[in-house]
Each structure stands twice: as C-alpha cells, then as structure tokens.
Batch of 2 targets.
Target 1
Amino acid sequence: MTSSRKNRTLLIDKEAAFALELLKDGLLSPVESLMNEQQSKSVLETGLINGKSFPFPFILTPSGKMNADVLSSAKKGEEITILFEKEPFATLIVDEVFHIDPSDRIKQIYGTSDISHPGVMSTFKRLGSLAVSGEYTLVNESRNTNKKIIQEAKELIGAKHTTALVMAANPLHRAHEKLIRQTLENTDLLVIFLLKPYTESNLSYEIRKKALDFFINNFLTKNHVVVVPLENSYIFAGYNEIILDAIVAKNYGCDRLTVGRNHAGLGMFYDCNSNKSIIDKVIGINIDITVASEYVYCDECTTLVSKNTCPHGQHHQISYRADSILELLELGILPPTILIRKEISAVILSKLFPNRFKNLEKLYYDILPIEGLLEEHTEKGFYLELMKLYQTTSLT
C-alpha cells in the first residue's frame, strides 16, 4: 500500500532521465522494468534476461547524500517523486532497495575501473551505492516520435529491410559517406542514429545534424534515409556498446545493424580457446549485424578503397581519423576535399566561426573571380569559392 505521507524525492541527472524514458518507450526490451537484486545477479551471471542478451543490470543508483538518506530509509510500497532539473519527472513505487559496489558497476559497463579511461570518472561520480527497483510512471508522456517516423518511412517505400547505422559524424567525412552508400546498397531503408552526447566538447549535435542532412538531401536518393538522435548515455559506453546498439535498433524496427571496423566496442576477446567478437554475445535479439570494411584513400589507387582489397600498404593510404580532421576545422583550416566534402566543410566552418571576416565583401572582390553583379555573399559561399582556388592547379 502506498504511503499517505507527502512524497519524498530523488534527484536524477539527464543521463538517468534518458535511460528511464528509453525503458518506458520500449526501446530496451527485453528489459521492461528496473531490476531488483535477484534479477541483477542473474544478468551478471548469464548476460541474459528472459533468454535474451542484456550486458549488465538496468538499475537506478542516484548519487548524493540526500538521495542516499531517502533510499536508506525507504519502505516497500512507498511512493517517491523523482526530480529532474528540479521538476517532477516520475513517480516510483518502491519495491526493493539494495546495495551495489559502484566500482563493480563501472567494470560491468566499461570493462575497467581505470580512471584514465574516458568516461569512467564522470560515471563514477554519478553513481550511488544504493539501487532502487519498482514500477515508475513518467509525469509527462514521452515525446519520442522517432519510432513512428521510422514506421512511416518504411511504409512510404515498402521497405522489406531496414538497417541501422550508429555514428557520431564528428565531423562527417568521406569514409562516413562511403559507409553510408555501401550500407544503402544492401537495404531498403537506412536509419542513422546520430549520437547526441551530454557534453558538447566537439562539434555540437546541431552542426553535425545540419552537415548530415545536407549530404543526404543533396547526394543520396530521396526517402531512403532517416536520421534519429540517440542520446549518448553512459549505458552505451564501453565494450558492450554494440549489444545496446543492437537492442535499441531492433526495438526501433530495424532488422539489420551495420558497424564500422573501428567501432569502439568491436574489440576481440578470447573465449573457450577461440577468438570471438562481442557480436557473438548477442543472443535472442534477432537482428543481423554486419561489420563494414575500414575505408582509406590510396594514392596509388587514387580513390577511396577498402583496406581489405587495397594491396598497396599503409605508406600509400590516408586514414580517416575524425579527431585529426576536426582539429583542422577547429583551427579554422579548410581540410582537403579528399578528406571531407567541401560543402560540408563550408557548413561547419560557417557555424564554428560566425562573422569571422572583417569585410567579407572586400575579400570576395579582391581574391575571387566575380561576374560584376552586386550579390549578397555568405561565409559558407566564401569557403566554397576559396576551395575552388585551392583546387586550381594550372600554375603548379
């Protein structure tokens, strides 16, 4: 029976709120509720829930002294209000409160508790030592309409196969384009889950989405690609990321998942005297997972090629390292078009450095060929015209 006293409160952050919404949207099935202690132990032992893969317990363990005080005295059947950004987010009927070891939790997610590992320390800070299970109800109905959007896109073209591709596109470079095109060759509808991290330390989601939309709208066939934001919560971190990607993609209506060869979660592990990948641990999800080739530019082949088919070796190959390409952009340098499409560079630079030039019109008329007509010029257009000059080779 629910307590009649005024509800006590738990405070959660954005990552926890997103995870709770994912669960209520049915996107983490086979998980259907917060796990209790017995269910958590079972998942840790088997990696399964209801005969299907799930890499670690789905639990709520908010940090902080106030949360610890509430949970340590919580009674079975008590109703607790969950607050997010100081506003009621959900109500939870307590079923069970149990202790966890935050260090063990970190290892379950990342495979290590080494604080030098990206994400370990930030995740550790947001974990408490008490977990709570029970049924919860969101105060406001989830506004996630992406499942409906994907279904409508499938119906529009009569798609028999829908493939998911999870990427950061930070920034969108030529190898990303090749991967997208190659995936489209073998599917009817492609759903790109564009990662939306909680800390915008690199390109913002809005800039990356704008660049991706530009490529899709101008260089791909219509109605065959849908872009869906995917909050890059801590539960998607570590070597279990591919399992979570497969689960979410399946629940969104995809029957295939393509992952890049350099995917962070694709590392090999040794099991029963044979080499296997994390993909071999996906059980009962009923989604085909394909590992795409790694693409490079070969100066002998003079084109973008798969490392599996190019015979010329690394001394002839240019790899597409997003962090290095991003460094050029953040310094305000136009990357060569061999690395990133000039239109994409123009989109990104015009957003990263708004109003960069003291006198844009003077630059246009001083260093670019013009038709003598009075026109309104933009920074994006200037970058495009500047790239044409970079590509002029008649004097070399």
Note: Residues 8-138 form a domain with the Sulfate adenylyltransferase fold (CATH 3.10.400.10).
Target 2
Amino acid sequence: MSHHIVEFKDVCFRYPDGTEALHNLSFRIIHGESVGIIGANGSGKSTLLLHMNGYLMPTGGTVNIGDLHLTRKTRREIRKKVGIVFQNPDDQLFMPTVYDDVAFGPQNLGMDEEDVQKRVRAALDLVNCYDLINKPPHHLSNGQKSAVAIAAVMAMEPDILAMDEPAANLDPKSRRLLINLLKTFEHSKIIASHDLDLIFDVCKRCIIIREGTVAADGPSQDILTNKILLEENNLELPLSLQRR
C-alpha cells in the first residue's frame, strides 16, 4: 500500500511577503493511519495540508505521496490520490447545484455519466445529504455545505483524506455524524483541527506543529493527555478530559 504513504522531508515554505510558514518539517504517515495535526493559530497547519496535493509547492525539501515526488508535473496525478476538504466549504462549492459540485471531480476523471451518477449518490448517501442533490449550494446551511464539500471529495474515492477544521461549522448532531463517518474511512486520513476532542476521538496519532516544524509526534493518548506539553504549545487539554 505504498501509494497511501505521505512523507515530508525537511519541507520549508515561505509566502511571497516573506513569512516563513514551514521550516524543516519532517514526518511520515503510512497506510491506514489516522493522524491529527494540532497547533496554535499561525503554526502552519493549513499550509502543511495545502502541500499534500500541490495547492502550495515547497520552497525547500520534498513532499512524497506514495511513489510520486510532488512537482508541478505530478500534481494532477497526486490530486487523484489525496482529497482535501478545506476549512471554508465556500472555497470548494462553486457549481449551480449540489449534484454538479459532487459530480465535478468524477467527470474530470473522464468517467461516463452512469458511473458519475453512482459516485454522486454514494457520496451524498455517505454524508446523509442525498435529499440536497438538486439544491443550489448557496441556499444550504453551513453544516450542509460542509457535508456536501466532504461528499465532493469522497466522490473521487481518494486513497488519502486530508481535512482542515472539518467540524468548524457543524452543530453537535452533524459533528457526531462526521466523527462516525471518519471512523469508517479505512485509508489514511490527516485532520488539522483546534477541536482536540474530535482528534482524540478519531486519530490514533497526533502531531503538534509549532512555528512551522514538528514539536511533538506520538500516540494521541500520550500527547492529548499531556497538559504541560499542550500548554507549552499554547493548547489546552480536550474538553472531555478537563471535566474529569
């Protein structure tokens, strides 16, 4: 299952204004791992995710997805392997109807319409939103938009799922449905979030990012129960642990 591997080696990234967002960042994620990426605001979490399929390209170091080294030439192939769900679903939903948004990826893979329809139905059923299929995305609630954005990525049947603050716009019921959905996704998943309870619930491994590099990497059970380590990185214990 080498095609499911994500590896960053000494990755650096500097924005055009000179801000260094990633600095010698290294980690390796293997097939089937569920990994939470946590850190304070501005630590580099979102920038890291955007390197996973070439929305951003490193200014130093290397990113490898499976056997592919990320370059401008390999981005298209890598995007078939890595699905990214953005923090703001409005960044992903741009077509006239929900069907069109979820169908967009499979259609661009050159699939025939019958297979596209099957993919759309399966993806919307997965997030319990098939009844929204003919609605314009801009008429949806924030929670519905988030669910449809997830469906649009899942319709591509990615090997690796990467999500940026997936529960940010969800009510408690929708959040629980998302957690249950993520637990059923068998391939590699990487979730960047401030919702440490979600990370604790879904991810067996946790990486803390501080100032664009890895500050800690280990089992979520160890990292998310370490009050001192979390406070050193401007984080707090998950709420479920604070009540104990």
Note: The domain at 2-242 is CATH 3.40.50.300 (Rossmann fold).
